[in-house]
User: Fold this.
Amino acid sequence: MLALSGAREADRKKDFDLYTVTENMAIAAGLPKPKVYLIEDSAPNAFATGRDPNHAVICVTTGLISKLSRRELEGVIAHEMSHIQNFDIRLMAIVTILVGVIALMSDWFTRSLWWGKGRDREKSQISAAIMIISLVLALISPLIATLIQLAVSRKREFLADASGALMTRNPDALASALEKISKDKEVLEAATNATAHLFIANPFKDKQFTAWYSSLFNTHPPVAERIRILKEM
Assistant:
């Protein structure tokens, strides 16, 4: 992920605010300070990765540092620290693997129905309707599993917002940061479909959907809803 993004490790002297804010948030969370990386990109965004607090990384863009105040940066880093604290990266890795297993099982079942046609013809007691229902379920189960994966991702973003606000005791700082990030029109070039769910906000700013079902396929909850909840804290 870091290599694909072209990230470099932050330097305490060159990137003083980012480095010290991360140190402070690690102390507040009672966690080891994660490694800090920077992506040279003017689009403001951030993500956390790593299997546990002892092997964690927080990565932010240069655009995030230049466009946010220090207190807003604290809100963002607290959000990412919460992902580490809540083991969200590990959880989403497990969910992704389970979705892949379901897809493989579905493929295996579909193939077994196809290659088992000859044997099934000899068993007249097997209902054709049951076979059709089984086939439909085999085809849609990967889609259902993917929707569950995306729903889990959205719920964990809400949890990280709440945990981050608790860490800083300043929910307005994260709300202000999210508002600035969402209003910025620059698309993060380092992001891909496979990594978009890691970022604090959807990095594909140019993708706007209006269909009622579009929210089911989002990796992040609506920013306006996140800001509303934070302001009500």
Notes: The two ends are 33 Å apart (CA to CA). Residues 2-89+150-231 form a domain with the Zincin-like fold (CATH 3.30.2010.10).
